[in-house]
Specification:
five-stranded antiparallel beta sheet; rod-shaped
């Protein structure tokens, strides 16, 4: 009879241990699931990079008169490809077009390269801006105000974000910036990018 009581106690202890191990196993699986979900929603989420004009200067200017709509000069600056992902962004080249009132006044090319994770790749550029046209109705008023509005747009910059050296996701970006060229000081002001 005493042995039967010991047997029941040992069976009860084994059952409690099994239940305890099952609880630990379930807790571990739930914890791992939560970690995987958080990881996939933050680190593995791929966002499109941002392609912008960071700075620009206009040198050696030559402006026409109010009756002769023309200007020319050297245009220097820096583009930026901002990568906010947890992986490297390798992109193909692109062409950036600078325009005054919809008329192309210059182009700059961006070579194929890469932007590291959580960083901004800075790309220097130089080009000549020149305009020689006879039919721009706003030229006289823009020259009188001393501000020439310029836009910078790019062709589609295609690339891939590499996550964990395994996954590759295609992402593309385009530039769309506006700026004002101040005639008196030949400086760029109000540089805004979308």
């Amino acid at each position: 009879m005493v042995e039967a009581g010991k047997y029941r106690d040992s069976e009860e202890l084994r059952r409690q241990k099994r239940i305890k191990y099952i609880k630990y196993g379930v807790a571990f699986v739930v914890f791992q699931t939560i970690v995987i979900v958080i990881f996939s929603l933050t680190v593995m989420k791929v966002k499109g990079p941002k392609f912008r004009v960071r700075s620009a200067t206009f040198q050696n200017p030559n402006f026409g008169s109010s009756s002769n709509p023309s200007f020319s000069g050297a245009f220097y600056g820096q583009f930026g490809v901002k990568n906010t992902n947890f992986g490297q962004y390798k992109y193909d080249g692109a062409t950036v077009t600078f325009a005054y009132r919809g008329i192309t006044v210059g182009e700059a090319t961006v070579a194929k390269s890469k932007a590291n994770m959580l960083s901004t790749k800075k790309i220097d550029f130089s080009t000549n801006l020149s305009l020689s046209s006879t039919s721009i109705p706003e030229w006289s008023s823009d020259l009188t105000s001393g501000i020439l509005p310029l836009t910078a747009t790019s062709s589609r910059m295609n690339g891939k974000v590499t996550l964990m050296f395994i996954m590759k996701k295609k992402k593309a970006t385009q530039m769309s910036c506006t700026m004002d060229l101040v005639v008196a000081s030949s400086t760029i002001q109000n540089l805004k990018c979308k």
